[in-house]
Amino acid sequence: MNRAFVGDCRDVLRELIAQGARAQMCVTSPPYWGVRDYGIAPSVWGGAAECDHQWGDNITMHRGGPHGNGVFLSGGRAVVAAQASTKKMRSGNFCMSCGAWLGCLGLEPNIFMYVEHIVEVFRLVKEVLKKDGTLWLNIGDTYNTTNKSVGVKLKEMCAIPWRVGIALSDDGWYLRQDNIWHKPNVMPSSQRDRCTSAHEYVLLLSKSRKYYFNEEAIKEPASPNTHARLARAHGGYAPPGQDGHRGILAPRANSHGVNPKACTPGQVLDTRKKRSVWTIPTLPYAGPHYATFPTTLVQPCVLAGSRPGDVVLDPFAGTGTVGEVCNELARKYILIDIDPKNEVLQHERTSAPQAVMAI
């Protein structure tokens, strides 16, 4: 049964753990640090559970963003205008008694708190995953355009994906790969002292050393010059269309990294193992959500990390992109989002019946 939850993902994940729920994989894109205030109710992070919490003064910081000023992100003119109209973001409050923080993930006053909170969330995700499960984490970077107290120098790149990947590894995850999401239609930036950022990361992490990964399901077409390169590397091989072509390679002791199937009699090499750079354009979304990732980014993750009928988890579900892909690929899903406004959007994007629960 497909399930959608409204609430703090930590609370929902604890409830799923208590119920014995299990997912084969998780694919998600959490709020990026210092980019956007979604206007949702804050949550308590850290501190003492028994404390009555005496909250101090509000903290604010000027917005930053993956392109230096936090304004030119993917989206239409209305999205850009909405971002440009907000010059400051709320960064929560600290409890004067126990040091707990009241705020929203992504709006922490420094990058170290953000990384700590990300680790806390995915520690719970790891408990929900099966032993051979994987995590596909879409995350982007940002620059310090706020002040000098966020953890890096002013104007410096924050290196959020690297910090998160290392921190998750330190917490027990196996950091397997940093796939690059290359965005060919990215908005140009106005900075004159660096290049326009045109990529994000899809980190692949696993719960165990051995995990489920279906490489056949995500193979990509071989490049047009594959056969020509093989001809140069292996004397006597004739590319398709030339005299003497047999569609085979003579077996050799050293295959020079060539796909073993290319050495199988009667087979022509027309696919290759998926590369770690994925060129996928950003796609417009008509709904009122600023940060939807495209279905074409989610599809290879789901295909490689799960089988038909498996359960896919997204603890930051937003408008339900992962649910839509799961329906298309005959997977089940568990969606969690803290913003109740996204419940309707998720329902619109997922055709299969779902049980909506509030925790």
In short:
The chain has 2 domains: 2-33 and 108-217 and 275-358, Vaccinia Virus protein VP39 (Rossmann fold, 3-Layer(aba) Sandwich); 220-272, no CATH class. The protein is built from 8 helices and 16 strands.
What does this structure look like?
The chain has 359 residues and is an alpha/beta fold. The protein has eight helices and 16 strands. It has a nine-stranded mixed beta sheet. The longest helix is centred in the first third of the chain and has 18 residues, at 111-128. Mean pLDDT is 82; it is low at 64-86 and 245-253.
Silhouette:
globular
Overall pLDDT confidence: 82
CATH architecture of the largest domain: 3-Layer(aba) Sandwich
The order of strands across the largest sheet is 13-9-10-8-2-14-15-1-16
Q: Which topology of the largest domain does CATH recognise? A: Rossmann fold
- Could you estimate the helical fraction of the residues in percent? 10-25%
> DSSP strand (E) fraction?
15-25%
Stretches where pLDDT is under 50 for at least 5 consecutive residues are: 64-86, 245-253
End-to-end distance, in Å? 18 Å
Structural class: alpha/beta
How large is the radius of gyration?
A: 23 Å
Compressed to H and E, one letter per element, the order equals: EHEEEHEEEHEHEEEHEEHEHEHE
Largest sheet: 9 strands, mixed
Q: Let me know the CATH homologous superfamily of the largest domain.
A: Vaccinia Virus protein VP39
